[in-house]
TrEMBL record:
GO MF entries: ubiquitin protein ligase activity
Gene Ontology biological-process annotations: protein ubiquitination
Major subcellular site: membrane
Membrane topology type: Multi-pass membrane protein
Annotated protein name in UniProt: E3 ubiquitin-protein ligase TM129
Pfam families given in the database record: Tmpp129
Keywords annotated in UniProt: Membrane, Transmembrane, Transmembrane helix
Organism: Zoarces viviparus
Subcellular location: Membrane
Keyword Transmembrane in record: yes
One GO cellular component, as annotated: endoplasmic reticulum
């Protein structure tokens, strides 16, 4: 494979991946199905169900055309291969072209089948048919109910366009690239199955905990599905969700910035130099909570970091009196709550003697 062919292949693969799994940069540039075909798709607020029926259909057609687009692009990028003349190309390229045409033909056949009887066969329409019950005589009536509730401003909505979670007064909806999952709140129950801690996120300056919740319905025709959201959005979800929520064992939900900070705080203290108690000195209970031993000690260590500059930290002569959790909460409570990105680099006074210290001065007691 020569250089022009390789360059085009790499560029097309990157473009295809970004077009399918759309990053923020592509959304900002308007390179999305929703933006390119906005005139045909219509407004999501006016007709939520109709909008996503059209969106998922055009998404299948466009994504299935990517292999054929690669072949057509290669005709221009590598003209010496004569890919435009079918009888002159190699067997491998001829097989690739045939496969690309089959994928495109299959997708058109599928979308045409979906569109029959006013999109009655579409997967979203079939999902709506599972909820036909009084007072909804048909799936069109169910769609109207979803559309009406989606237009209300008090709905809960979060997530990227390819994995949105929407909770209205009666419905739990998950919007994905090719489908819209839905469940009636009165028929479902929700279970928190997993939590993951992410230290770096593109949209947040601080670590984020992402929760996975499984939505199960007592309606056998409704398939279970998972939704994901930030732990800081969990409280808002609970307010809107009337269905019961259960927690799986060992899943801890951090709902406040202070709790998220404590995780990072403990991790940083573990990296600091430990403090060894003098012989004969016993560890006393923490004077903050009186529940656990006082396992932290303030020792001025950051002076080495200051080099030729005068450090703002001061030596603390207090014996170990606080546990890491209580000291971390004290540290967080003295910060600017509107600027969490500055918390780890800040200095606060000792809760006992008021000597100023930073997070580098906190040592775990061994």
């Amino acid at each position: 494979m020569d250089s022009p062919e390789l360059s085009f292949t790499l560029a097309y693969v990157v473009f295809s991946l970004c077009f399918v799994f759309t990053p923020n940069e592509f959304r900002s540039a308007g390179l999305t199905i929703q933006n390119v075909f906005s005139s045909w798709l219509g407004s999501e607020d006016v007709g939520f169900i109709q909008y996503h029926v059209r969106r998922t259909s055009i998404t299948v057609l466009v994504h299935s055309a990517l292999p054929l687009g690669y072949y057509m692009g290669m005709c221009i990028a590598a003209p010496e291969k004569n890919l435009g003349y079918i009888h002159q190309v190699s067997d491998s390229w001829r097989a690739f072209l045939l496969l690309s045409l089959c994928i495109q033909l299959t997708s058109w056949t599928l979308v045409i089948y979906w569109s029959r009887r006013h999109w009655h066969n579409h997967p979203i329409s079939r999902a709506l048919q599972a909820h036909i019950q009084p007072p909804h005589p048909g799936w069109g009536s169910v769609a109207s109910s979803v559309n009406t509730e989606f237009r209300r401003i008090d709905k809960f909505a979060t997530g990227a366009p390819g994995a949105r979670v929407i909770v209205t007064d009666s419905w739990v909806l998950k919007v994905t690239t090719y489908h819209v999952y839905m469940a009636l709140q009165t028929d479902c129950h929700v279970t928190v199955t997993e939590s993951r801690q992410h230290q770096l996120t593109p949209d947040l300056a601080s670590p984020a905990q992402i929760l996975t919740l499984r939505v199960d319905s007592i309606n056998p025709a409704v398939r279970p599905f998972d939704i994901r959201l930030l732990s800081t959005e969990y409280a808002e979800l609970r307010e809107k969700l009337h269905a019961p929520i259960r927690n799986s064992p060992n899943v801890v939900i951090h709902q406040t910035m202070s709790e998220l900070f404590l995780e990072t705080f403990r991790a940083q203290v573990d990296l600091n130099q430990p403090y060894t108690l003098p012989s004969g000195q016993e560890v006393e209970p923490c004077i903050g909570c009186m529940q656990v031993p006082a396992n932290s000690k303030l020792v001025r260590l950051c002076q080495a970091e200051a080099a030729h500059n005068e450090s703002e930290c001061q030596q603390c002569f207090c014996r170990p009196m606080w546990c890491l959790s209580c000291l971390g909460r004290w540290f967080a409570s003295r910060q600017d709550q509107q600027r969490p990105e500055t918390w780890l680099s800040s200095r606060v006074p000792c809760p006992t003697c008021r000597a100023r210290f930073c997070i580098l001065d906190i040592c775990a007691v061994h």
